[in-house]
Amino acid sequence: MTERWFPDEMPMPAASAETVGWWEAAADHRLVVQRCTDCGRTRHPPGPVCPRCRSSSSEWSATPGTGTVYTYTVVRQAFIPSLRDKIPYVVVVVELDGAQGARIVSNLVDVEPEEVTVGMPVEVVWEDMGPELAVPRFRPAAAVPASAGATASAGARTSAGGDGGRR
Amino acid sequence: MTSMASRRGRRAVIAGVATSDYPHLPHLSEHAVHGQAADRALADAGLTFADVDGFATTGFFPMYATGVAEYLGLHPIYFDETNSGGSSFEVLVEHAAYAVECGAVDVVLVTYGSVQLTQMGRRLGTGGGGGGFAPGPAIYDALWGNTLVGNYAMAARRHMHEFGTTPEQLAAVAVTMRRHAASNPQAQERAPITVDDVVSSRLVADPLHKLDCCVISDGGGACVVTTEERAADLPRDPIYVLGAAHATTHHLNLSAMPSLTVSPAAQCGPVAFARAGITPADVDVAQLYDSFTITVVLTVEDLGFCAKGEGGAFVENGGLEVGGRLPTNTDGGGLSACHPGMRGMFLIVEAVRQLRGEGGATQVPDARIAVAHGTGGMLSTGATLVLGREAP
Question: How many other CB atoms are there within 10 angstroms of residue B192's CB atom?
C-alpha cells in the first residue's frame, strides 16, 4: 500500500473487455502482460487480437515487476492544473523483464529527476486507488543479485486468466 | 508499381496555393480562416468556387469537412476529411491527386484553418494526456501526467542514448528555422537565436527546452489540386505531384511504438520516392514537420537524407539552411513561423512557392524537386509528398 501519488483529478482506470484481466491482476499487485497463446508474442497495452498472428487467444503472463528505463522525460510544465504541485515529475517507458521486451509507460517515483538514466534498473511500486484498483508505478530497484532476472523469467509463465476470463 | 503520374494520362498538379493571414487572428473564426485561404488559393489558380467539384479538409470533430463545405457554399461530389494529425494535409493532397487522376473529379480544393492560439492560448503547447475519462486502452496513456511534448522528449532522450545526439544538435534545428523566419515578415518569431539561447531556455520536458518546441498560432492555408490538362490554360505554372505515400506505426501509446527512434517516415518516405522515381539526393528543398526539433532529426534520417543516428550531425552547422546540405523549412517552419496545430498545409504551400521561384530571400536556387513531409500524433503517422516543377 502506498499513498496516492497523483491528485484525485487524474482519470480513474476504466477497464474494457480486453483490459479487465490486467486490472484484476493489478489489484492483486501482480504486473502482467498479455501473451498470445498461439504464437507466444507479448503485447502492451492489451488488445483483442495478436498483432503478429491475429489470434484472439491470450493469457495474462506474470512478470517479475522489474525492468529497465528504456527512455524517460521530466515533466516540468504541467497541463492539468492539479499537477502543478507535482512538477517536476518523471514519465518513463520501462522495458519489462520477463516480457520479451514489452514496454509500459508509467512514472518513476522516489527518485530525483537528475538521477534518472536510460538503462537504470527499476521495480514496480503499487499505488492503491481504491479497494479493487491499483496502478503500477516504478522506483529505482533495490540492489538485485545478478541471478534475479533469470529466476524471474522462469517464473513468468503463470497464467492469470486470459481469453477465457470474464468478458 | 505504376507511378501515380501515368494513370490514364491525367497527371495531378497543384495549380494554386495560399496561406491565410497568420499568426494571430483574434478577429476571425476558424471557418473564416478557411474562407480566406480558399479565396486566395483559388485566385492564385485562376479558378472560382464554381470550378470546384471536390473538397478536402480536416479538423477535430466528425463531419468537419461538410461543415466547412457548407460555410464555403460548396456542394462537392468528392470530399475527404481523413485525420492523421499533423500529416493530414499531405494525406488529403495525396488522396486528391488520386481522385483527379482517376477522373472522379477535376478540381479539388484543400483547405486548413485554425484559431488555436486565440481559442486555447498557450496551454496547448504541453497539452494532451491526463484529465477526464479515458476508456479502454487509452487509459494506459492517461494515468501518468504525460504530455504531448513529453512523448517527443522521450524519443529525443532515446535518440541521445542510442546515437549520442546532443542538445546542441537539436538546438541547431531551431536556430536554422529562426534564421529562415527572419526573412518571413509574417513569422511569429523573427528575432535571431543561438544554440546557446535554445539550450539555456527553460526545460519543458527534458531534454526539450522551450525553444525546442513549436510556436502556437492561428492560421491556415489552401491549395488547389487538378490535372495537368485542366491547368494548361491557367495562369500559374503547374507543380506536379510526382509521388506520395503515408504510414502509421501506432496510435498514441509509446509502449506500442516499435522503436522510439524510427518514425513512420522510414516506411512512407522510400515508397513516395520510388513512386516519384527519385532518390533523396534529387531533393532540392524540404519542408519537414517541425513540431519539435527532434521531429526534424528523426525525419531527415528516416527519409534517407542521412543514415540512422547521423541526424544530429546532419542538422548542425547550418545543414538545413539555404545553401546547406538540405535547405529545410524556408518559411521558418512551425518552430518560428506558424504552427496552428496541424501545420501540414504550410509545408505544401511553401514547397510549391519554392518550386515556382517565389521563395524570396530564402529561395533555393533553381529548386526543381521538393519534399513535404508531415508527422502526426505521437510520431504515430507520417505522410510524404514529392512535388516537382517539371512533368515526370
Answer: 10
The pTM of the full predicted model, rounded to 2 decimals, is 0.92
Any domain includes B237: yes
Which residue among A71, A86, A104 sits closest to B260, beta carbon to beta carbon?
A71
Q: Kindly state the cell numbers that stand for B334.
A: 512551425
Domain containing residue A74 = 20-157
Q: What is the CATH number of the domain that holds A84?
A: 2.40.50.840
**Other CB atoms within 10 A of residue B70 CB:** 12
Question: In chain B, whose CA is at the least distance from the CA of A15?
Answer: B136
Specify which residues A34 forms β-bridges with. Answer: A43, A60
**What is the ipTM metric for this complex?**
0.90
CB contact under 8 A, A86 and B146: no
DSSP notation for A131-164: TTEEEEEEEEPPP--TTHHHHHHHTTT-EEEETT
B274: left (phi over 0), alpha (psi -120 to 50) or beta: alpha
* Averages of pLDDT over each 10 residues, chain B, 392 residues: 52 98 96 98 98 97 96 98 97 98 97 92 44 63 89 98 98 98 98 98 97 97 97 96 97 90 98 98 98 98 98 97 97 98 97 98 98 97 98 89
Distance CA B349, CA B8 (A): 27
B134: in domain:
no
